[in-house]
Inverse folding.
């Protein structure tokens, strides 16, 4: 008769060879030779079975296995088991958010004993998050590379998924970051291969340590905890010598916006102006225009608004900037131009099926204009206003705007949402899989009636136009079917 050591070693060999199903079948066939307490007392055997269950996507079976063998997950749990359990949670969470979990198998590795037949250990998402948070608190007690590795993977994936939601729970993000000492997170930056303009290049990713500051800073800003957001963003700038994903710019921008929220608009303006030297984004121009308008400096507000219009970015993203510019033109008694900008806002919203406010319609009707604009006039109106924007910015090259009026010439297509990217203040983007298998990028504004219906796997209808950034087509007119 084999010993528990021989039993455990054979399963280990199956695991090394990645024969996970064979390992589980071997366990099932031979477990009757050992008492439960003997099996549960072998931390390596428990860890390997959990690994086999996660690799075969039988996550609920993993929780049931721990329950049946009375293995508790607490501060007394051996590190080997805790790591295996944490990886089980990690893969379970990935499948819950990106794939289809395999159902609890009948009689897969164990027969339910009488006392367990009424126990339901299937895990829903809220319970899974609670398990992950508890596991992370246990993992921080260990300094081994294995425990730190799984801790960081759990931390990153939970926050990434939360940030990608249509309505992220930023209070939860702050709470989760606060539950982890950032000094426990690695400063090592992994490298991946990416293709840029047809050339395969190395891309360095942010460390878990840097990501902690980025997530916490964003969460604090979104929950209007401006003073602490300022402090954390400032600490981040003082902590790191090298930043990724332009995090140094976003930390500096949040510092400026926090100063504005805290009543120091002059310093906010000064810092945003400094950021523009490195990052000439249209939305930073918009924020500066709004601040100068609040200060009563209409000339500078107008200058930044105009420069924002010729900075890179599709017109539909800039709809609030266009409306801001319309108001500034009206203040300058440029009523014909102001009217045309307000009309453009209305036509963009009509084209994108966004809500058109009653106040916007009232403002448009307040002008003494005899011309009634229709959607078919949009192409001509955009071309006319582009000449005005370029004229006011003779030193800047205008990025070609999307020819939205050509949308009527496109053909409706069908597909499914393949993946969703991080939610933005204005909306959500992602990728669609067409019926022919090709992928196409899309952006959906928050005002769109279908925005709250977005989720991976849903069927949609859409049309495509050429993107302004030269990276192929872009899907428009997204309709959930």
């Amino acid at each position: 008769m084999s010993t528990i050591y021989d039993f455990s070693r054979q399963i280990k060999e199956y695991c090394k060879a990645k024969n996970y199903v064979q390992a589980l079948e071997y366990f099932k066939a031979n477990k009757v030779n050992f008492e439960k307490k003997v099996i549960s007392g072998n931390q390596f055997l428990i860890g390997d079975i959990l690994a086999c269950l996660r690799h075969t996507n039988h996550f609920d079976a993993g929780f049931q296995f721990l329950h049946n063998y009375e293995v508790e997950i607490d501060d007394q749990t051996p590190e080997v088991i805790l790591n295996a359990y944490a990886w089980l949670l990690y893969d379970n969470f990935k499948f819950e958010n990106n794939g289809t979990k395999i159902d609890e198998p009948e009689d897969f590795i164990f027969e339910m004993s009488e006392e367990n037949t009424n126990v339901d250990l299937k895990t829903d998402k809220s319970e899974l998050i609670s398990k992950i948070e508890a596991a992370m608190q246990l993992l921080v007690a260990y300094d081994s590379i294995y425990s730190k590795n799984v801790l960081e993977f759990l931390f990153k994936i939970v926050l990434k998924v939360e940030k990608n939601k249509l309505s992220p729970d930023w209070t939860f993000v702050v709470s989760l970051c606060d539950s982890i000492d950032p000094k426990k997170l690695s400063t090592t930056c992994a490298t991946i291969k990416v293709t840029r303009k047809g050339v395969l290049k190395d891309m360095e990713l942010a460390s878990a340590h840097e990501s902690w500051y980025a997530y916490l800073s964003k969460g604090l800003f979104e929950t209007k905890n401006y003073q602490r957001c300022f402090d954390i963003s400032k600490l981040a700038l003082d902590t790191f010598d090298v930043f990724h994903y332009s995090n140094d710019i976003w930390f500096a921008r949040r510092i400026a916006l926090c100063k504005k929220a805290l009543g120091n608009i002059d310093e906010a303006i000064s810092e945003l102006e400094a950021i523009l030297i490195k990052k000439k984004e249209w939305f930073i121009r918009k924020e500066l225009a709004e601040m100068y308008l609040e200060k009563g400096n209409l000339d500078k507000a107008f200058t930044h608004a105009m420069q924002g219009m010729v900075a890179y970015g599709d017109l539909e993203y800039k709809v609030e900037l266009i409306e801001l510019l319309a108001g500034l033109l009206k203040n300058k008694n440029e009523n014909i131009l102001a009217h045309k900008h307000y009309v453009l806002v209305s036509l963009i919203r009509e084209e994108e099926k966004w809500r058109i406010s009653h106040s916007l319609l009232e403002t448009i009707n307040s002008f003494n204009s005899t011309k009634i604009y229709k959607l078919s006039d949009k192409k001509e109106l955009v071309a006319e206003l582009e000449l005005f924007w370029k004229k006011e910015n003779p030193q800047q090259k205008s990025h070609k705007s999307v020819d939205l009026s050509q949308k009527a010439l496109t053909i409706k297509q069908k597909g499914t949402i393949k993946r969703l990217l991080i939610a933005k203040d204005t909306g959500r983007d992602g990728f669609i899989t067409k019926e022919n298998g090709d992928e196409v990028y899309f952006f959906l504004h928050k005002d769109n009636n279908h925005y709250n219906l977005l989720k991976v796997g849903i069927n949609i209808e859409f049309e495509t136009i050429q993107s302004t950034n030269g990276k192929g087509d872009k899907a428009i007119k997204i309709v959930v079917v």
